[in-house]
Amino acid sequence: MKNFVYILAILCTIIACSTAKTNAIEPVKNNGVALNDTVRIANDSLEYEVIIIDNGFSTWLASRAFPRNYHSQSYLESKNILYVNEWNNRVLQPQRYSPNLYEMNINYNPAINYGYEVNYLIYNYMIYFQNTYKQKLWGYVPSR
Fold first, then answer.
1. pLDDT at residue 101 is higher than 60
2. How big is the CA angle at 117 (ends 71 and 73), to the nearest 5 degrees?
3. C-beta of residue 40 within 8 angstroms of C-beta of residue 49
4. Are 39 and 52 spatial neighbours (Cβ–Cβ below 8 Å)?
């Protein structure tokens, strides 16, 4: 009787594992997430490029960020300097801060005029990052 129960359990497992499988690939449904969530910031004359790949950032930028020209370029630059410095400090401390969040150093030079758009996108990514991942890099973080 004991062997019968074991054989029955094994047969049920084999039957359950060998159910019919289809080769059709079902399309992924878009649940409000942008299909292309990569933001590229580039300026060929200054020879730099920043690529932000983070699910939800493009959607957040379009829906929740302050509109362009809400803040001045000097305001954005001063905030970016503080945020980037703290970010880079955390990259250097993987035992204290998650290396999954702070993967790479950001090479942001305050002496270079990156222009309004670059500073706007970096600033908004820092706000998005802090609100999404419950981090506080520096000072007051708008929760927009």
1. yes
2. 35
3. yes
4. yes
